[in-house]
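Researcher: Structure for this, please.
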Amino acid sequence: MHAAKIINRLSLMLVSSLCLALLIATPARSESPSTGWLTDANHPPLTSRVVITGAADPTSSTVNGFLEIQLEGEWKTYWRTPGEGGVAPSLNWQASKNIKNIEWHWPAPERFDLLGIDTLGYKHNVVIPLTFTLDDFNQTTLFNGTFTLSSCTTICVLNDYPANLTFTPSELEINPEALHRYAQGMSQVPQPSPLIEHLSTTWDEGAQRLEVIAQKKMGWTSPDVLIDGESQAVADVFFSVPQVVVNGNTLQATFDASSWMGKPNLSHTALNVTFIDDNFLAEQSSVPKSGIVTASTTLSLSSAILFALLGGLILNIMPCVLPVLGIKLSGVVTAQGLEKTKIRRQFIASALGILFSFWLIAAFLSVLKLTGHAFGWGIQFQSPIFIGLMATITALFAANMLGLFEIRLPPNVNTWMASKGNNSYAGHFIQGMFATLLATPCSAPFLGTAVAFALTTNTLMLFVIFTALAIGMALPWLLVALFPSVAKRLPKPGHWMKVVKIAFGFMMLATATWLLSLLANHLSSGWVVSLVLLGAMLLLRRTSSVYGKKIAVVMVAIGILFSATALIAASLTASRWATPLPADIAWERLSEPRIAKEVAQGKTVFIDVTADWCITCQANKIGVLLQDPVYSTLNSDGMIAMQGNWTVASPSVTQYLQKYGRFGVPFNIVYGPSVPQGIPLPVILSSDVVLNAIELAKGKTNE
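Model: Predicted structure, token format:
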């Protein structure tokens, strides 16, 4: 038994000796060079280290490593371009030996906001990959440097961290853990991406604004865009948080630029454009061209509501609503004999009619969105049924104002309604609805922006914006309801009121005729002429019944005489008119591939997206496009005029509008060699705006 124990002990000693011998004989695995964690006793929340991964390339004489920074709590450090505040990390390595260059690979940063100051950087932990380029790959390398790192919470601290390590590149062995950390860092570094199909940048020196337009194959989710550059011209420039608009695969980001050194000029200066999106990082280089950059259509909800209120209010003075003013004026004047309570209720009923009509439009657009159909402001005028219905209602209102008929209810119904307070509330409600529906062919300042915001958001916000539009348009009615004494201060009804009603009645009649003319886009000319003649016959017959045959004959004679006189006078004096309308521009059909082709050949392309039912479109055409010098410019050599017609439903035109965040007409844009991405123009045109955009698109400045 004792002998067995001795044998076991001897065996164990022998095995241990063999293991020790093998351990001594086996070369020790070299650890990757590292500075270890660097600290500053005066600032414990930040620690850092430099690690060499062991991965090296003798051909390029490079060695890979990384700077790792750990931060406690809410402390953060900064990106290569820190933003409005902060200091970017820096390294002084001039005392090093056998090192030619050290390249930083910057991971995508986070965006931070503190008291309105926008900064870019990192929290908690960040690995910044480094590439060391050496003078001699076979010589011992000494890294002797000092990192200067800024870290902030509500206060900021700037500290220096001396770092030293020595290694021989040719003798390095890969450390899997260090290489894994390096790979993690590199995976967060934005690189050029083939998914970015198109990238263009435009610098507007006058507005100090930069625009980025990028198209990505797989579309965008919730992108952020960062701008910086390596030249001194960009180093001192601060770029604001961008206003980003996404339409399908196209991203538009607009930045305001500023500098402590004065107004920057970024034309023809290389920029780095960094895209950060869900599961997508990319960094592309771009040289901006000079151009006009309009403010982005992205709004806060409060701004969109304000724009909707103003747009709705301005609709009251647009040509579309002008014929309804007679009804409004009549309602105000005839309310003088009523009590203030009844006046207030009448005008509230009209305001509710406006609100209800806007809600109907919002519901209609929501259904179109949910079912994948084309949608936009005024799109109901693409329907011949809607146009016919509106023409009929307008004609009935006109006949009523001309005194040709009145709606008479049975005596018992009148008695019941009178006992309830007033028998005109329903009529006022319908007037409000009618005014709203008749307003939709018009675009007004602020209206397009508010509608575009509403149509790109969710259903709830769409109803919120359209409610604000309704309140804006109903504001005159609400003011009378709030101060009913206003109605009693107007002149009493009399002969003047009859004249005004007849004048507005004829305006309503002209509106009905215009609406019937829109049916020419859906029906043959014969049908349209037949409908107009039928309406005229019914009008004359009713006039004969109410006012007598003599009045009807006089009306026909006056109509014929007026038309003949107008035609003769026009033919005799047309040459002496101040601004005679020339023949229409030789428009070519809108084609996006053709636009790019013509611009590539050095031509300038003017786009007009319009509709026959759009009053603002016709005002732009008659007042600007068909007047010199714009008319001559559009017909000159080197100019291509294209038109997209939205009078009837057109999926291609709708898609083109929505590409630019537009959901209604008019829409005008100019392309040229200097601005191939296009210069969108405002809703209401002027000669100066059009000519300046054309000259800028050509690469010139219109003095």
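Researcher: Any notable elements?
Model: Confidence is low (pLDDT under 50) at residues 1-30, 413-423. The CA atoms of residues 128 and 616 lie 56 Å apart.
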